[in-house]
Design brief:
Length: about 290
């Protein structure tokens, strides 16, 4: 028969065991949480695949250099090439050009963005840009900017973001058109050159990288690359279907009301609505350098 003292000791033993067990569980839990945080910080760069949700006709003579969504299933588009440059209002579902402003033959249209009622456009190999009335695409003003060249434009509704074919992402005051901030965009220590068509999406700048099938997702605050969207199968699919005259992926538009992403390319016969998914394949830095750094 157990004495009172033995019963007491047994109780203490059980209590101490429970305390130890709970401590071990807590320590394991905390350390695995710490591990998860460390590892997710390390892999905070995201890679994205996509699925095609919809495809729409796109004017295959449009050398797309600027694209944006303007509500009501319409896009504004800027096209390049000398003698063929234009600003257009396009119905998404039919691809029909509803209004077309043909530019002077000596201008090569580039990036386009909509701020309030006014469309801002830059042009290739000049520092000249134009402002148009969104209602009728009539030219309101001409301006000069301070970038090396005119490639891409976007806006967060307050300031303009610009690219000029280098690895610099510019912030531009929309009133004075003076550059206020520059960020050099780097990946794995290397400059990401040829930043092209831009879109501002949910607090990020998305940039087509010229001559690649990649879109870089960039923090506008500090220029850090947050992720890569890999779209090689879009151009690949068009080529496989026999569309040999197409040029590179270029043109991102964002419908913020319905979270729709549209992409197209220069001389592409189609505009795609896509949805992103985290990539299943694991990409390392070398893969991305090969695919996305021109
Ligand atoms: C939306 O687009 C359709 C077709 O182009 C047009 O008839 C209609 O007036 C537009 N609605 C608005 C609010 O702009
Ligand atoms: C850059 O800004 C993003 C948010 O836009 C933030 O998540 C990231 O940690 C920042 N990176 C650096 C190096 O400051």
């Amino acid at each position: 028969m157990a004495t009172f003292k033995q019963l007491y000791l047994r109780k203490v033993f059980v209590l101490v065991s429970i305390i130890l067990l709970v401590s071990v569980i807590l320590v394991l839990g905390v350390s695995s949480a710490t591990w998860n945080k460390v590892s997710s910080d390390h892999y905070s760069l995201q890679f994205y695949d996509f699925e095609i949700v919809n495809e729409f006709p796109h004017d295959s003579t449009a050398f797309t250099q600027g694209l944006l969504y303007a509500g009501n299933d319409t896009l504004f588009e800027s096209t390049g090439l000398y003698r063929q440059s234009s600003v257009r209002k396009v119905a998404i579902r039919t691809g029909k050009v509803e209004i077309l402003h043909k530019m002077a033959d000596s201008y090569f249209g580039e990036g386009l963005t909509l701020l309030g009622e006014r469309l801002f456009q830059v042009t290739w190999l000049t520092k000249i840009g134009f402002i148009y009335d969104r209602k009728n695409l009539q030219k309101l003003e001409q301006f000069t900017h301070e970038m090396e060249d005119g490639w891409g434009l976007a806006t967060d509704g307050k300031i303009l973001y610009g690219s000029d074919g280098t690895s610099t992402l510019y912030q531009i005051d929309s009133q004075t058109l003076k550059v206020t901030t520059k960020n050099v965009i780097k990946f794995n220590g290397q400059n990401v050159r040829y930043l092209n068509e831009l879109e501002y999406i949910n607090g990020e700048i998305w940039a087509n990288v010229w001559q690649t099938d990649c879109i870089a997702r960039i923090s506008p605050n500090n220029g850090t690359i947050l992720g890569w969207i890999l779209l090689p199968s879009l151009r690949g699919g068009l080529l496989a279907a026999g569309y040999n005259g197409i040029d590179v992926l270029n043109g991102i538009a964002w419908d913020s009301s319905n979270n729709r992403i549209f992409v197209t390319g220069k001389l592409w016969p189609k505009l795609y609505e896509i949805k992103l998914h985290p990539a299943k394949k694991h990409y390392n830095s070398e893969d991305i350098e090969k695919l996305c750094l021109a």
